[in-house]
Amino acid sequence: MKLIDAHTHVQLRQFNPDRDEVIKRAVEQDIWMVNVGTTRKDSQAAVDLCEAYAEGVFASIGQHPDEREIFDYDWYMRTGAHEKVVAIGECGLDYYRVEPHLFNDERDRQIELFQQHIELAKELGKPLMVHCREAFSDVKSVMRKEIGDLSADVPGILHFFTGTKEDAKTFLDFGFISLDESDQVIYSSEAVESLLGVTPSKLNTLREQVLLISNEFVKEIEDFFNKTSRFLLVSN
Questions:
Q1: Is residue 63 within 8 Å of residue 69, measured between CB atoms?
Q2: pTM
Q3: Helix pair 165-174, 136-146: axis angle to 10 deg
């Protein structure tokens, strides 16, 4: 059984000293990875890594909402057609560091950028890698308008989930966890209890899941999963 870490950044400079060792060690243990871009530069680096390894290394390309570079839609369209680019993002909304007096302008900028990623995902037929921090209301509002036009079997992955049970249920209803025959991914973090609170019945129906969680929740989640279907745990 292969484990897929669906949100990594091995292309970043922090891995310069041992990047090849990290990737080879993971692939040898049947751990595949999706390296996620946050700018055009490191999106390209993620694609370059895909081409350097025969298997196990994939990319998601996009611009993090905190980044303020001009979004080059045509470049992302061309690059997103690469067979090993499996998602669009890291995209979404992040209001965590926004100064109150700049909020309205920054909110508008981020929403426009998010919508560009959604249009890209529609055209390419690929899922979204959605980042959401202190912005659930707006992310849900945007996705409600757009979700019906996303053609990917799984519309997206919600990265860095810290929301409520209601937030989790909304994204489950959007289809961010799909009940088809392919391998699936559930994302969570400190709010993993909220996710488990609304998904046990769905979790039981899935053939194979990967849960990305923080170390302190491993024992709790292992106990839960022992009573459900087959899962793989990744601590990050």
A1: yes
A2: 0.76
A3: 20
